[in-house]
Amino acid sequence: MPKSKPVKIYSSDDGQAAASKFGQMLGDAFASVVYQHIQRYLARQYPQYVLLEPEDGRKLVKFDMLGGTLRQLDNVIIEVNSIDPVALFETKWLKDGRHHNDKGAWILQLREISRRHPTVRGMVANLAGYWTEGVRVMFESEGRVRMVLVATDVEVYSTLQPHIDTYTQANHLEALKLDNIRAIRNRLPRAWDLANCLAALKQAGVLDQIAQAWLSFERDQDAGGNPIDGAGLIEAAIDKVLKPLPENPRIVGFEISLQVESGNVIHQGFTDLEEALEFMQRYTTNPQAVLETITPKEKASASLEEEIASFDEANSKDLSDELSE
After folding, report:
1. How many CB atoms lie within 10 A of CB 241?
2. pLDDT band at 262 (very low <50, low <70, confident <90, very high)
3. What is the separation of C-alpha 2 from the centre of its chain, rounded to a whole number of angstroms?
4. Greatest CA span in the chain, whole angstroms?
5. DSSP string covering 220-289, please?
Protein backbone atom coordinates (compact mmCIF):
# COMPACT_ATOMS: atom_id res chain seq x y z
CA MET A 1 0.00 0.00 0.00
CA PRO A 2 1.58 3.34 -1.07
CA LYS A 3 2.49 5.76 1.68
CA SER A 4 0.48 8.98 1.87
CA LYS A 5 2.39 12.11 1.00
CA PRO A 6 3.52 13.94 4.15
CA VAL A 7 1.66 17.18 4.85
CA LYS A 8 3.85 20.25 4.42
CA ILE A 9 4.16 22.38 7.53
CA TYR A 10 4.41 26.08 6.73
CA SER A 11 6.35 28.67 8.69
CA SER A 12 6.61 32.46 8.68
CA ASP A 13 9.25 32.12 5.96
CA ASP A 14 6.59 30.65 3.61
CA GLY A 15 4.04 33.46 3.82
CA GLN A 16 3.26 33.77 0.12
CA ALA A 17 3.23 30.04 -0.54
CA ALA A 18 1.07 29.48 2.53
CA ALA A 19 -1.45 32.10 1.38
CA SER A 20 -1.69 30.41 -2.02
CA LYS A 21 -2.13 27.02 -0.38
CA PHE A 22 -4.84 28.38 1.91
CA GLY A 23 -6.79 29.72 -1.09
CA GLN A 24 -6.26 26.52 -3.05
CA MET A 25 -7.64 24.36 -0.25
CA LEU A 26 -10.69 26.60 0.12
CA GLY A 27 -11.28 26.53 -3.63
CA ASP A 28 -10.91 22.75 -3.84
CA ALA A 29 -13.29 22.20 -0.92
CA PHE A 30 -15.87 24.53 -2.44
CA ALA A 31 -15.61 22.89 -5.87
CA SER A 32 -16.00 19.45 -4.31
CA VAL A 33 -19.23 20.21 -2.41
CA VAL A 34 -20.76 22.01 -5.40
CA TYR A 35 -19.90 19.09 -7.68
CA GLN A 36 -21.47 16.61 -5.26
CA HIS A 37 -24.60 18.75 -4.90
CA ILE A 38 -25.07 18.99 -8.66
CA GLN A 39 -24.60 15.24 -8.95
CA ARG A 40 -27.27 14.53 -6.33
CA TYR A 41 -29.71 17.05 -7.82
CA LEU A 42 -29.38 15.61 -11.31
CA ALA A 43 -29.91 12.06 -10.02
CA ARG A 44 -33.07 13.21 -8.23
CA GLN A 45 -34.60 15.62 -10.76
CA TYR A 46 -32.94 14.96 -14.12
CA PRO A 47 -31.95 11.28 -14.37
CA GLN A 48 -31.64 11.65 -18.15
CA TYR A 49 -28.59 13.85 -17.56
CA VAL A 50 -25.27 13.17 -15.89
CA LEU A 51 -22.43 15.32 -14.57
CA LEU A 52 -19.21 13.94 -15.97
CA GLU A 53 -16.36 12.92 -13.72
CA PRO A 54 -13.71 15.67 -13.88
CA GLU A 55 -11.29 13.66 -16.00
CA ASP A 56 -13.99 12.82 -18.55
CA GLY A 57 -15.14 16.43 -18.63
CA ARG A 58 -11.63 17.62 -19.40
CA LYS A 59 -11.38 15.22 -22.31
CA LEU A 60 -14.71 16.32 -23.76
CA VAL A 61 -14.61 20.12 -23.51
CA LYS A 62 -11.40 21.95 -24.24
CA PHE A 63 -10.31 24.79 -26.45
CA ASP A 64 -7.19 26.66 -27.47
CA MET A 65 -6.37 29.93 -25.76
CA LEU A 66 -4.31 32.80 -27.09
CA GLY A 67 -0.67 31.79 -27.21
CA GLY A 68 -1.47 28.14 -27.87
CA THR A 69 -2.41 27.25 -24.30
CA LEU A 70 -4.99 24.48 -24.01
CA ARG A 71 -7.71 25.09 -21.44
CA GLN A 72 -10.05 22.40 -20.18
CA LEU A 73 -13.37 22.41 -18.40
CA ASP A 74 -14.30 19.69 -15.95
CA ASN A 75 -17.90 20.50 -14.89
CA VAL A 76 -19.88 19.32 -17.89
CA ILE A 77 -23.45 18.01 -18.05
CA ILE A 78 -24.40 15.67 -20.89
CA GLU A 79 -27.40 13.52 -21.76
CA VAL A 80 -26.99 9.91 -20.64
CA ASN A 81 -26.86 8.55 -24.20
CA SER A 82 -24.78 11.34 -25.75
CA ILE A 83 -21.28 12.78 -25.67
CA ASP A 84 -22.32 16.34 -26.56
CA PRO A 85 -22.10 18.92 -23.75
CA VAL A 86 -25.41 20.48 -22.70
CA ALA A 87 -24.37 22.72 -19.80
CA LEU A 88 -21.07 24.08 -18.50
CA PHE A 89 -20.31 24.87 -14.87
CA GLU A 90 -17.39 26.65 -13.25
CA THR A 91 -16.80 26.91 -9.50
CA LYS A 92 -14.54 29.69 -8.21
CA TRP A 93 -13.36 30.91 -4.81
CA LEU A 94 -12.00 34.46 -4.70
CA LYS A 95 -10.15 35.97 -1.74
CA ASP A 96 -9.84 39.56 -3.00
CA GLY A 97 -10.55 41.86 -5.94
CA ARG A 98 -6.98 41.72 -7.22
CA HIS A 99 -7.74 38.38 -8.89
CA HIS A 100 -11.02 39.40 -10.52
CA ASN A 101 -9.27 39.65 -13.88
CA ASP A 102 -7.55 36.25 -13.64
CA LYS A 103 -10.59 34.23 -12.66
CA GLY A 104 -13.04 36.47 -14.47
CA ALA A 105 -11.23 36.01 -17.77
CA TRP A 106 -11.64 32.25 -17.50
CA ILE A 107 -15.36 32.63 -16.77
CA LEU A 108 -15.84 34.95 -19.75
CA GLN A 109 -14.09 32.39 -21.94
CA LEU A 110 -16.95 29.98 -21.33
CA ARG A 111 -18.68 31.98 -24.05
CA GLU A 112 -16.03 30.89 -26.54
CA ILE A 113 -16.65 27.25 -25.64
CA SER A 114 -20.37 27.62 -26.33
CA ARG A 115 -19.57 28.92 -29.80
CA ARG A 116 -17.71 25.69 -30.56
CA HIS A 117 -20.42 23.48 -29.08
CA PRO A 118 -23.92 24.48 -30.30
CA THR A 119 -25.49 21.83 -28.03
CA VAL A 120 -24.55 23.94 -24.98
CA ARG A 121 -27.71 25.60 -23.61
CA GLY A 122 -26.18 27.58 -20.81
CA MET A 123 -23.18 28.37 -18.63
CA VAL A 124 -23.17 28.80 -14.86
CA ALA A 125 -20.45 30.09 -12.55
CA ASN A 126 -20.88 29.11 -8.88
CA LEU A 127 -19.00 31.63 -6.76
CA ALA A 128 -17.76 31.98 -3.20
CA GLY A 129 -15.69 34.77 -1.72
CA TYR A 130 -15.24 38.41 -2.61
CA TRP A 131 -17.26 38.78 -5.82
CA THR A 132 -18.69 42.29 -6.15
CA GLU A 133 -22.10 42.96 -7.67
CA GLY A 134 -20.57 45.01 -10.48
CA VAL A 135 -18.26 42.19 -11.54
CA ARG A 136 -21.10 39.67 -11.50
CA VAL A 137 -23.31 41.94 -13.63
CA MET A 138 -20.48 42.42 -16.11
CA PHE A 139 -19.96 38.67 -16.45
CA GLU A 140 -23.64 38.10 -17.07
CA SER A 141 -24.02 40.90 -19.60
CA GLU A 142 -20.73 40.43 -21.45
CA GLY A 143 -20.16 36.71 -21.08
CA ARG A 144 -23.75 35.48 -20.84
CA VAL A 145 -22.68 33.41 -17.88
CA ARG A 146 -25.26 32.96 -15.13
CA MET A 147 -23.58 33.97 -11.87
CA VAL A 148 -24.55 32.23 -8.63
CA LEU A 149 -23.07 33.73 -5.46
CA VAL A 150 -23.22 30.82 -3.01
CA ALA A 151 -21.31 32.33 -0.06
CA THR A 152 -19.43 35.56 0.66
CA ASP A 153 -15.92 35.64 2.08
CA VAL A 154 -17.30 36.87 5.42
CA GLU A 155 -19.61 33.85 5.60
CA VAL A 156 -16.87 31.38 4.66
CA TYR A 157 -14.49 32.77 7.28
CA SER A 158 -17.24 32.63 9.92
CA THR A 159 -17.48 28.86 9.45
CA LEU A 160 -13.70 28.49 9.77
CA GLN A 161 -13.27 30.64 12.89
CA PRO A 162 -14.29 28.06 15.54
CA HIS A 163 -11.88 25.52 14.03
CA ILE A 164 -9.08 28.09 13.86
CA ASP A 165 -9.70 28.90 17.54
CA THR A 166 -9.45 25.21 18.44
CA TYR A 167 -6.28 24.79 16.37
CA THR A 168 -4.45 27.80 17.85
CA GLN A 169 -5.37 26.76 21.41
CA ALA A 170 -4.30 23.15 20.87
CA ASN A 171 -0.96 24.25 19.41
CA HIS A 172 -0.36 27.01 21.99
CA LEU A 173 -0.45 29.75 19.34
CA GLU A 174 -1.60 33.33 19.67
CA ALA A 175 -5.28 33.79 18.84
CA LEU A 176 -5.97 34.33 15.12
CA LYS A 177 -9.17 36.13 14.17
CA LEU A 178 -10.67 36.51 10.69
CA ASP A 179 -12.95 39.41 11.59
CA ASN A 180 -11.12 42.30 9.89
CA ILE A 181 -12.37 41.57 6.40
CA ARG A 182 -10.78 44.62 4.75
CA ALA A 183 -7.35 43.68 6.04
CA ILE A 184 -7.83 40.04 5.07
CA ARG A 185 -8.74 40.97 1.48
CA ASN A 186 -5.43 42.78 1.29
CA ARG A 187 -3.28 40.26 3.17
CA LEU A 188 -3.98 37.09 5.12
CA PRO A 189 -2.93 37.32 8.77
CA ARG A 190 -0.36 34.61 9.62
CA ALA A 191 -1.03 32.74 6.43
CA TRP A 192 1.28 29.91 7.53
CA ASP A 193 -0.87 29.13 10.59
CA LEU A 194 -4.03 29.33 8.49
CA ALA A 195 -2.62 26.97 5.86
CA ASN A 196 -1.46 24.52 8.53
CA CYS A 197 -4.88 24.64 10.17
CA LEU A 198 -6.73 23.94 6.90
CA ALA A 199 -4.30 21.14 6.04
CA ALA A 200 -5.04 19.50 9.40
CA LEU A 201 -8.79 19.93 8.86
CA LYS A 202 -8.52 18.46 5.39
CA GLN A 203 -6.49 15.48 6.59
CA ALA A 204 -9.10 14.81 9.29
CA GLY A 205 -11.94 15.01 6.74
CA VAL A 206 -13.43 18.03 8.50
CA LEU A 207 -12.84 20.65 5.79
CA ASP A 208 -15.38 19.07 3.43
CA GLN A 209 -17.94 19.10 6.24
CA ILE A 210 -17.28 22.80 6.81
CA ALA A 211 -17.59 23.52 3.09
CA GLN A 212 -20.98 21.82 3.03
CA ALA A 213 -22.27 24.61 5.27
CA TRP A 214 -21.33 27.19 2.62
CA LEU A 215 -24.31 26.06 0.53
CA SER A 216 -26.74 26.84 3.35
CA PHE A 217 -26.44 30.61 3.71
CA GLU A 218 -29.62 32.50 2.82
CA ARG A 219 -29.24 34.38 -0.44
CA ASP A 220 -32.77 35.36 -1.41
CA GLN A 221 -36.47 34.76 -0.78
CA ASP A 222 -39.15 33.32 -3.03
CA ALA A 223 -42.52 34.93 -3.76
CA GLY A 224 -43.90 33.48 -0.55
CA GLY A 225 -41.13 34.90 1.60
CA ASN A 226 -39.42 31.55 2.08
CA PRO A 227 -35.60 31.67 2.26
CA ILE A 228 -33.51 30.49 -0.68
CA ASP A 229 -29.95 29.39 0.11
CA GLY A 230 -26.94 28.93 -2.14
CA ALA A 231 -27.86 25.32 -2.83
CA GLY A 232 -31.29 26.48 -3.98
CA LEU A 233 -29.74 29.01 -6.36
CA ILE A 234 -27.54 26.30 -7.87
CA GLU A 235 -30.61 24.12 -8.38
CA ALA A 236 -32.53 27.03 -9.94
CA ALA A 237 -29.65 27.61 -12.36
CA ILE A 238 -29.72 23.92 -13.34
CA ASP A 239 -33.50 24.09 -13.84
CA LYS A 240 -33.10 27.08 -16.14
CA VAL A 241 -30.36 25.49 -18.22
CA LEU A 242 -32.00 22.08 -18.53
CA LYS A 243 -35.54 23.18 -19.28
CA PRO A 244 -36.91 21.25 -22.30
CA LEU A 245 -35.98 22.51 -25.73
CA PRO A 246 -38.88 24.26 -27.54
CA GLU A 247 -40.49 22.41 -30.43
CA ASN A 248 -39.97 25.40 -32.71
CA PRO A 249 -36.93 27.28 -31.44
CA ARG A 250 -36.64 30.83 -32.73
CA ILE A 251 -33.58 32.97 -33.20
CA VAL A 252 -33.60 35.87 -30.73
CA GLY A 253 -30.29 37.51 -31.54
CA PHE A 254 -27.53 37.82 -34.10
CA GLU A 255 -23.83 38.57 -33.75
CA ILE A 256 -21.84 39.50 -36.83
CA SER A 257 -18.07 39.97 -36.95
CA LEU A 258 -16.52 41.35 -40.11
CA GLN A 259 -12.79 40.76 -40.44
CA VAL A 260 -11.05 43.51 -42.41
CA GLU A 261 -7.82 42.78 -44.32
CA SER A 262 -6.07 45.46 -42.24
CA GLY A 263 -6.63 43.37 -39.12
CA ASN A 264 -9.57 45.38 -37.83
CA VAL A 265 -12.79 43.67 -36.74
CA ILE A 266 -16.21 45.29 -36.99
CA HIS A 267 -18.54 43.51 -34.59
CA GLN A 268 -22.16 44.18 -33.72
CA GLY A 269 -25.10 42.41 -32.14
CA PHE A 270 -28.69 42.55 -33.36
CA THR A 271 -32.14 41.36 -32.37
CA ASP A 272 -33.69 42.18 -35.75
CA LEU A 273 -32.88 40.20 -38.89
CA GLU A 274 -33.41 43.12 -41.26
CA GLU A 275 -30.95 45.27 -39.29
CA ALA A 276 -28.39 42.45 -39.41
CA LEU A 277 -28.77 42.09 -43.17
CA GLU A 278 -28.52 45.86 -43.61
CA PHE A 279 -25.31 45.85 -41.55
CA MET A 280 -23.82 43.14 -43.78
CA GLN A 281 -24.91 44.92 -46.95
CA ARG A 282 -23.54 48.30 -45.86
CA TYR A 283 -20.04 47.09 -45.07
CA THR A 284 -19.59 44.41 -47.74
CA THR A 285 -20.55 46.76 -50.60
CA ASN A 286 -19.15 50.05 -49.33
CA PRO A 287 -15.38 50.16 -48.61
CA GLN A 288 -15.71 53.82 -47.62
CA ALA A 289 -18.08 52.88 -44.80
CA VAL A 290 -15.50 50.32 -43.61
CA LEU A 291 -12.74 52.92 -43.72
CA GLU A 292 -14.78 55.49 -41.79
CA THR A 293 -15.53 52.95 -39.08
CA ILE A 294 -11.98 51.65 -38.58
CA THR A 295 -10.26 55.05 -38.78
CA PRO A 296 -9.51 56.58 -35.32
CA LYS A 297 -11.63 59.67 -34.67
CA GLU A 298 -10.39 63.03 -33.47
CA LYS A 299 -10.64 63.61 -29.76
CA ALA A 300 -14.09 64.86 -28.75
CA SER A 301 -14.56 68.13 -26.93
CA ALA A 302 -14.71 68.02 -23.15
CA SER A 303 -18.44 68.77 -23.08
CA LEU A 304 -19.19 66.00 -25.56
CA GLU A 305 -17.02 63.55 -23.60
CA GLU A 306 -19.02 64.39 -20.49
CA GLU A 307 -22.27 63.74 -22.36
CA ILE A 308 -20.97 60.38 -23.56
CA ALA A 309 -19.84 59.40 -20.05
CA SER A 310 -23.23 60.40 -18.66
CA PHE A 311 -25.00 58.37 -21.35
CA ASP A 312 -22.84 55.30 -20.69
CA GLU A 313 -23.40 55.57 -16.94
CA ALA A 314 -27.18 55.76 -17.39
CA ASN A 315 -27.22 52.76 -19.70
CA SER A 316 -25.00 50.79 -17.32
CA LYS A 317 -27.41 51.49 -14.44
CA ASP A 318 -30.40 50.45 -16.56
CA LEU A 319 -28.63 47.21 -17.46
CA SER A 320 -27.74 46.52 -13.82
CA ASP A 321 -31.35 47.13 -12.72
CA GLU A 322 -32.65 44.93 -15.52
CA LEU A 323 -30.38 42.04 -14.63
CA SER A 324 -31.16 42.25 -10.93
CA GLU A 325 -34.91 41.93 -11.46
Report:
1. 19
2. very high
3. 36
4. 78
5. EE-TTS-EEEHHHHHHHHHHHHTSPPPSS-----EEEEEE-TTS-EEEEEES-HHHHHHHHHHHHH-HHH
